[in-house]
Design goal:
Largest sheet of chain B: 3 strands, antiparallel
Number of helices of chain B: 5
Helix content of chain B: 55-70%
Largest interface: A-B, 17 and 19 residues
Largest sheet of chain A: 5 strands, parallel
Strand content of chain A: 15-25%
Number of domains of chain A: 2
Order of helices and strands of chain A: EHEHEHEHEHEEEEH
CATH topology of the largest domain in chain B: Heat Shock Protein 90
Structural class of chain B: mainly alpha
Strand content of chain B: 5-15%
Number of helices of chain A: 6
Order of helices and strands of chain B: HHHEHHEE
CATH superfamily of the largest domain in chain B: Histidine kinase-like ATPase, C-terminal domain
Oligomer: heterodimer
CATH architecture of the largest domain in chain A: 3-Layer(aba) Sandwich
Radius of gyration of chain B: 32 Å
Number of strands of chain B: 3
Chain lengths: 163, 219
Amino acid sequence: MSQSILIVDDEKEIVSMLYHYFSKLGYTVYTATAGNAALKEVEKNPDIILLDVNMPDIDGFTVCEKIRDYISCPIIFLTARIKDSDKIKGFSIGADDYVIKPFSVDELEARIAAHLRREKRRNVSSKVQFDDNIVIDYSSRVVFYQNQDMSFTKKEFDIALGT
Amino acid sequence: MICCVTIFYKRKFAKPIKLLTNAYQKVEANDLDFELSYPLNDEMGKLCCAFEKMKNCLAKNNEIMLRQFAEQRRLNAAFSHDLRTPLTLLKGHASTLLSFIPKGLVTQEEILEELSVMSKNVLRLEKYVDAMTNLYRLEEQNNYLVISVSDDGCGFKISDIGKAALPFYKSSKETSTEHLGLGLNICKILSERHGGNIQISNNKTGGASVTARINYRES
């Protein structure tokens, strides 16, 4: 299954350009040209979000702040705001990267791939093998015996971990 | 005799000279925040007064310049910000075409569409360049003192407009013998001497209008 990107920018031409570029690379691309529309598209659970800052209804910083608590995918700001204070604000409200316009699409593609790989590693590394048969996935709280999900309850998982 | 001269010097010159010396040292160090005053109204007093006026002029000019610099910086930042979107589009589309044409991933229709967007954005950038140039010309215009005189009379005859500034030229409409026909000629010469010009025309609402421009920086 292909990975999905949500692109948010009030400039339709930029959205269109990025839509075509990443579609051709095999990504599923969702788009939004305003902050409020973005909040809706986020429900499709994209694997990564490209977010503009200056938008007419609600700005990108506000969108990021609103979704950060329940969306864990990487968020990259794509913006013409160049000041250090803007970058610091972006990172402090939960962005994982901050790219300034004009940018190279090739470089953006490389960054996106890097962020997605990191997400994969993070999900995989929470699994620990104990002997030939037992694997415990700490982040999703699943215990596998001979590769089968044992469907432990919350209490059973806690007992297994001795907590 | 020497005693008299010394006393005269001490009375008349010593104090104001010291005041002036302190003052110019401060100006040299770019500290214009002081007031130079000398109570007596003699020659030295007048000199001190003149120096104080000069210092105030300098301070005012500095303020004007600082404000202009700040304004220019703000303008530059605005232009720089606005140029980023068209540049992003040009960069992105060029990259897309360079990457995907060799791989055969774009149809001819898509190629033409992308090139069309690129052309549009090149035009956009051209508009910005023009705007920046015109703004510069507008600032040049701001160096001119513009004096305009207009009335609500019958206006210039079209055939007269080109010749009105010629010496001794009088319109055939003009019957009075009192006018020598030198007024506009004098205006033309004076404004040109001051790095400017005059413009002779009719108002849209009727009546005549003469506008003189004088370059007040160069003169």
